[in-house]
Design a protein that fits this description.
By secondary structure, the chain is of the alpha/beta class. It contains seven helices and nine strands, in the order E-H-E-H-H-E-H-E-H-E-H-E-H-E-E-E. It has a single domain (6-16, 29-181, 189-222), classed as Dihydrofolate Reductase, subunit A, CATH 3.40.430. Helices cover 26% and strands 23% of the residues. It has a nine-stranded mixed beta sheet with strand order 5-4-3-2-6-1-7-9-8. The radius of gyration is 17 Å and the shape is globular.
Length: 231
């Protein structure tokens, strides 16, 4: 079997399963205590991946926030924050966005084969642009990241990316944080879309942790036989 990074999916959802609100205004689902936990998970990873839609909608920095965690990474000979990775079909990305401009670590863009020339014209100054296949194949992406030294990968959304990792069996654990309110609009983005998931009524995912963090709850699931591996 080809080698791939140990992969953690991480997201926050409302009680009715939405990743955000129905407007362009960003909806905060987590709290400071949970954001500190997420920061620790990030700091223990080699790379963080989000989809291009998340880059456009949220303009995330994807940096380790804690000075102490950044110092600990430097002491281990690592950059202050993990490598940033995104996936795009059409290369509709702004080279001035925080994903590219914030932090001095490596940025990698996997794009569909047809979009590679456009992506390199737009982004080659700020990122490494790679051919991900006709529709950006997750297996190919994961193998390439492993070849580049990524042993631990954190996937932070959005819904389409989570769906692809889950339905392809490319995730090892899921960190799902539930916020104590409803969004109440089908126009809002959901945690996952339609798909053939490996976990269903006849094959339940294994819950390994349930923890209250202030007013939110962390549900942690083991999704593969590799759960808990350190490398």
């Amino acid at each position: 079997m080809p080698e791939r990074p140990y992969t953690i999916l991480s997201c926050s959802v409302s009680l009715d399963g939405y990743l955000g609100g129905a407007t362009q205004e960003r909806l905060v689902l987590s709290n400071e205590a949970d954001l500190a936990r997420v920061d620790e998970v990030r700091a223990a990873c080699d790379a963080i991946l989000v989809g291009a839609a998340t880059v456009r909608a949220d303009n995330p920095r994807l940096l380790v926030r804690s000075p102490q965690l950044r110092r600990e990474r430097r002491a281990r000979g690592l950059p202050e924050s993990p490598t940033k990775v995104t996936v795009t079909e059409r290369a509709h990305l702004d080279a001035r966005s925080d994903f590219f401009a914030a932090g001095d670590g490596e940025k990698i863009v996997y794009c569909a084969s047809e979009a590679v020339p456009v992506a390199r014209r737009r982004l080659s100054r700020v990122a490494t642009v790679l051919d991900g296949g006709r529709h950006v194949e997750l297996g190919r992406l994961s193998e390439d990241l492993h070849d580049r030294g990524v042993r631990r990968l954190m996937v932070e959304g959005g819904g389409r990316v989570h769906t692809q990792f889950l339905t392809s069996g490319a995730a090892d654990e899921l960190h799902l944080v539930v916020a104590p309110f409803f969004v109440g609009s089908s126009r809002a983005p959901r945690f996952v879309g339609d798909g053939a998931f490996p976990w269903h009524p006849g094959h339940r995912a294994r819950l390994v942790e349930c923890r209250q963090i202030g007013d939110v709850v962390l549900l942690r699931y083991a999704l593969s036989a590799r759960f808990g591996a350190t490398a």
